């Protein structure tokens, strides 16, 4: 992102800053910090860039933000600090890094949940082992560490807390509206966990709860806040949309976890819409399935409909299956799509596409599967200046909408 691209409106500056943190765009982040953006600006949920970096386990980003004055104890609207985000998402290196930078390990969320309980809720044994001696008492309305392990069915955490931890970190104290781990398992009707607790010698310290006030169906929402909406993952679609090739390659090579894509879609399908061959090359190099399909619609077919000739040629050269499994062959589809060159159509025809008739027309099924709307859209860098009816099915509009 160039300096001139950033609007003078401060809200847009702030949005650009937080988006850069979400996509690990260090270059843009530095540029905006140099331009005077405060490192502790936050979104509507009071999430800061440091919290995002901690939730993603991005040490480099955290170092940058802290060096520019970011507050390590700044929390979001439920009281979660960067340290708590790192614990909840199991980033042990980020946890250790924040402890070295004086993160308060004894702090709780506004609900009274400790960092240890958050790590247990995520099932991250290495973080639990690191925090096991941090004896921070849980508040009355919050789940204890053992209650969290029981509610999330983390057998290995339960065993560790009872048998292997150096000392019991308040795990047996009745809490969570007067309940303990044994009563939690009983209310959730989890016989397997109840048997495990019994085998470990864990007994209840509270009387049997009155079912009129604590019903099993009403209990699970009481546990939901141990999640605290802490999963802040980068969305690969932002990197594809903005054609951040080098950042995408770096994050994939580092095996970073991304936010889930819509069911049935792949990152290559979105790259086919954008039309950037370099993005597609990075995705294929990192193991994305070239022939994955959504309702039989592959990335190659999407590139054809969008009129992205270079992408079509690249996918063909990389061995993409050109059978459409539809009434129209790929060559026929390309012939009706402006932007696909005659030489590309001839190249497709040489593959001897097998026609497989179906009862439902290709485009009606396409619209139903991807919920496209007919709307004239402006051509972008990788597309022809004029888009035909088939291009008007608005792949880009649909994708940009989902990525915005």
From TrEMBL:
ANK repeats lie at residues 45-77, 263-295, 295-327. Signal peptide: none annotated. Transmembrane segments: none annotated. Keywords: ANK repeat, Repeat. It comes from Parascaris univalens. InterPro entries: Ankyrin_rpt, Ankyrin_rpt-contain_sf, Dendritic_Spine_Reg/Scaffold. This is ANK_REP_REGION domain-containing protein. It comes from the Eukaryota. The keyword Transferase does not apply.
